[in-house]
Amino acid sequence: MTNFLMPSRRALLKGAGAGLLALALPAVVGAQAAPIKIGFQLHRTGIGASYGRWYERTATAALKLINDAGGIAGRPVEIVFEDDATDPKRGAEVVDKLTQQAGCDLVMGTLFSHVVMGSAPRAGELKVPYLVCSEGYHVASGALNRWTLQPGITDVRAQISTMAPWVAANLGKKVTMVFPDYAFGHDHRDFFTKAMAEQGGEVIAQIAIPPTETSFTRYFPQIPAETEVLYHVMVGPAVLTFVKELGEFYGTGAKPALFGFVDSLEAVDTATPGLEFLEGSHFWEGHPRVKPADAGEHEAAYRAAVGVDDNGASVSDAKDVSTYAHMFSTWETLYFIKNAMEAAGYTGPADRQKLVEAMEAITDLPYGLEHPQGAKRFNGKTHQVFGSQYISQIQSGKLIKVHATTIDEGLYPDAVDYTAMSF
Amino acid sequence: MAFGPFLLLALMEGLVTAAVLALAASGLSLVFGVMRVVNVAHGEFFMLGAVIAWFVTGMVPGPAWLAFAVAVVVAPLAVAALAALADALVLKRLNYDPEATIVATIGLLYMLQQAALTFYGPDARPVAAPFDLRLQTPWFGYSGYKLFVVLAAGVVLAGIWALMTRTKAGLVMRATQVDRDVARAFGINVDRVYMGTFALGAGLAALAGVLIVPITQAHYLMGGDPLLLSFIVVIIGGLGSLRGTLVAALVIGLSDGVISMFFSPTLAKILATLLVAMVLVFRPQGLFGTRSP
Amino acid sequence: MKVWASHLAVVALLLALGFLLPPYHATNMARIMVLAVFAMGYNLAFGYTGLLSLGHALFFAAGIYAAGLPIWHWGLGAAPALILGLLGGGIVAGVTGLLALRTAGVSFMIVTLMFAQAGYLTLLYFNGVTGGDEGFALPASGRMLFGADLSTDLPRYLTAWALFSATFLATLALVRSRFGRVMVALRENEERARMLGINPFTAKLAVLVLSGAASGLAGAAYGVLFGYAGASFATIQYSILPMLYVLLGGAGTVAGPLLGAVLMFALIEVANDLTSAWLFIVGAVLVIVVLFAPKGILGALRDRFFRGLP
């Protein structure tokens, strides 16, 4: 038992010593290029851990590239990762810790929308820029504050709106939706239903599944027989069960066309036994997992840097499938930070307000190694970025890109003007 | 879907839920019944069973049924050994104090979850069923393996019943359950009985994990639901009553299935939860429990 | 007298800490004090009266929503919201108790667990009103208390301190009163308590209402002080947390819940700094602590040194 205690006590002392050192350091080193510290709120444990691991890998890869190219405004960059346990209460504490304890210049990286919602108020109080990689509609809806931005990934409202025309034109007009009974699912419910109606289609049934559920078959009979398209999106560890049970339920009988969000299969190999019935079905992808034949010139360099092969799996373990459709957001957010810091002439925490203003002034983010998912347009008023979306079809067990949307298709009227709010 | 086939599916699903509940709860029924301690880590033993099954089926070459059979043997043994160790190092030293045991098993839960996250990873991974059989009715398809789980639950429960009523070990456990001081006075080594019961309970949880993992997936957080549901089943059934555990699993599983026919999923879940809670409100000792704390 | 002096010293020390601690630690201390209010509420039911509940997340959530929803939808201020939180927690606990107190022991544990689970799902089901799992950020107007902005450091700390101190001293007075002895009698031997002319059901219901009110107050305080409400506060974790604080600090001691909350918070902070596998450290330390102090830290101290500690 003492063995357990001893190393931790020693490490504690070491930690305390390092803390003192860190306090003394800036005073001594002073003007010498002190590193820019970026706090990263990481889903290392909890339900978001699959995403968190890849977010960490992608951000670390971008960090290396940035530092190799001379850092930000000539200063080296550091990322401080801190686990938020995918929990909103801990999330707020982590924002606090990264800002006040670790001395980070800003905080980024959150995916799950309840953690964003729980953390953003604290970021606003601390007046620290908080850049989320969540795809939630919380930022653009106006629910948050001047300090919270989403510059790395298109929000779910825009994603969904661009899917409806394609679904209506190619798969069918009578849609049944199956989605988790929480915010992410509700965004799908609300915006897809609306977008489908605009296309002359109709959502004939909405089946919201409670997140505590681990078995789904009993709800499938609620899918009306006249359904032409089954729109499905699930998140969390039970997603694979959901897709497998759907396959068992329809079996060899007639089935509607399937359209899903790849969130259901992030970090899951599409060739997994039991998923055969997904063959031929379509998925939204934020960034095509399997490298398309017509991929842009920077795609290969991005994959190589992150350590992902052409199938979207880790180069060291083909079974370790990435969360490819989302993780680019951390990469692009880091380059967005670099862009804004250099534009603002950022020197330290005193310039945080100037930094947010510089971010709000950014509009076009051209395609390049900085933005490998595609060109984007940032809306400084709503703090939300907009980019292209992709639709892929499962062919021989692989996601093959079949359609790309334009940025304009995803735009919608501003719901908020954060620039009119006080800091 | 017409009402008839819908009801058929709801009943089949209810039966499978009942089987899953009964399997997950059988180990807890023993531990809780004999030792009267709240083992918060029970769900993690279930998780370990599923995770070990993933490792084992990945390593054993040959047909799926063979790899699965190896997992059915290996996982419960490994987890039972781990539980025996935890008993010797921690629970015994706490003299099975109910409150201290809660804290200790919460600690154990954290350690096991972290170990699974570190060595197995955060992803949900599938374990292939020992056989691939899909039943096709005119209205819907159904997994043959799910029906096998129902069968397996029956076999496991029958095995425990035989153990408890037909063997000397079972007699000793029942004697300890009734009164541990009297059992000690009669020369029963209560410490060994407790260690054995705890290990057996953990092994059964792991066995449940192995049997159930082909219809869900192995995931490091999968232990939470079985833990809560097992407690519910064991208490509703009546503490220490195997028959009660079975009946409670059937009641909960079937009511869950049938209620889900008439309401939207979340509302159905709320109603089913309240309904089951009401069983206990109006029959505090559980369905087959005797009136005692 | 000595007892009051030592507990008043704790209160004074916490007040001083608000001015001495650097902002990061002060904010965390404010969080800890709010959570300690929750744990003290839990301790009334579990530690003193022996009601093992796994449903206190429901009462905490009742408080956070009773306070948060009127702030969010109708622009209520923080003072009435805190009162609504207190009432919300108490009322929900009362209704729960009317049904759940028909049971005892482990059955009580399971019934409260299931009610809390139903409560969590209800928050999701009415997501249009409650914001569902994502929850909502409380607008600034609802975070003003008598002209003080609770989103700033000192007013937040002092509010948390005031609520903590009130609950702390009220608990001390309660457990040292005649009713406090009734609570312990119910825990130790319900039959004997009955023979002494106590109606166990009514007494336990009263305790549960008080316990729920404290939990609800803590929930409301968390909402207005930290600006967020969401359904995750109604999940089983938030039923286990106060139990863990109480057991770690010492069940049935007035200061135990505070001590447990401080320890758990510090443990998670330190473990996170040591390793990314921090959960393992937390688990191991819990096991070690309970081996040395099976009745919690203050429980162990009471057994060895301070016999009369309430």
Outline the secondary-structure elements.
The complex is a heterotrimer of chains A (423), B (293) and C (310).
Chain A lengths: L1 H28 L6 E7 L6 H20 L8 E7 L4 H14 L4 E3 L4 H14 L3 E2 L16 E2 L6 H15 L3 E7 L2 H16 L3 E8 L19 E4 L6 H12 L6 E5 L20 E4 L13 H8 L6 E2 L2 E5 L2 H21 L7 H10 L2 E2 L10 E4 L4 E4 L2 E6 L2 E7 L19
Parallel strand pairs in A: 1-2, 1-3, 3-4, 4-5, 6-7, 6-8, 8-9, 9-10
Antiparallel strand pairs in A: 10-16, 11-12, 13-14, 14-15, 16-17
Chain B lengths: L2 H33 L6 H18 L4 H28 L6 H22 L14 E3 L4 E3 H23 L1 H11 L1 H6 L4 H23 L11 H14 L4 H21 L2 H18 L11
Antiparallel strand pairs in B: 1-2
Helix pairs in contact in B: 1-5, 1-8, 1-9, 1-10, 2-3, 2-4, 2-8, 2-9, 3-8, 5-6, 6-8, 9-10, 10-11
Chain C lengths: L1 H19 L2 H26 L7 H19 L3 H23 L4 H21 L1 H4 L5 E2 L6 E2 L2 E2 L3 H23 L2 H11 L1 H6 L4 H27 L1 E2 L7 H13 L6 H19 L3 H15 L4 H8 L6
Antiparallel strand pairs in C: 1-4, 2-3
Helix pairs in contact in C: 1-7, 2-7, 2-10, 2-11, 2-12, 3-4, 3-5, 3-10, 3-11, 4-10, 7-10, 11-12, 12-13
Summarize the structure.
The complex is a heterotrimer of chains A (423), B (293) and C (310). With 423 residues, chain A is of the alpha/beta class.
Keywords:
heterotrimer; B: 293 residues; C: 310 residues; mainly alpha; 14 helices; 3% strand; amino-acid transport (chain B)
**SSE run of chain A:** HEHEHEHEEHEHEEHEEHEEHHEEEEE
Q: What gap, in angstroms, lies between the N and C termini of chain C?
A: 12 Å
Structural class of chain A: alpha/beta
* Beta-strand percent range of chain A: 15-25%
Instruction: Write the CATH architecture name of the largest domain in chain A.
Output: 3-Layer(aba) Sandwich
User: In terms of structural class, how would the helical and strand content of chain C be classed?
Assistant: mainly alpha
Strand order in the largest sheet of chain A: 7-6-8-9-10-16-17
Question: How does this structure look, described?
Answer:
- The complex is a heterotrimer of chains A (423), B (293) and C (310).
- Chain A is of the alpha/beta class and 423 residues long.
- Chain A is built from 10 helices and 17 strands.
- Chain B starts with a helix and ends in an 11-residue tail after the last helix.
- By secondary structure, chain B is mostly helical.
- In chain B, helix 1 runs antiparallel to helix 8, helix 1 packs across helix 9 and helix 3 packs antiparallel against helix 8.
- The longest helix of chain B is centred in the first third of the chain and has 33 residues.
- The relative contact order of chain B is 0.21.
- The two termini of chain C are 12 Å apart.
- Chains in contact: A-B, A-C, B-C.
- The interface between B and C is large, with 47 and 42 residues.
- Chain A: InterPro entries: BCAA_transport, Leu-bd, Peripla_BP_I, TAT_signal.
- Chain A: Belongs to the leucine-binding protein family.
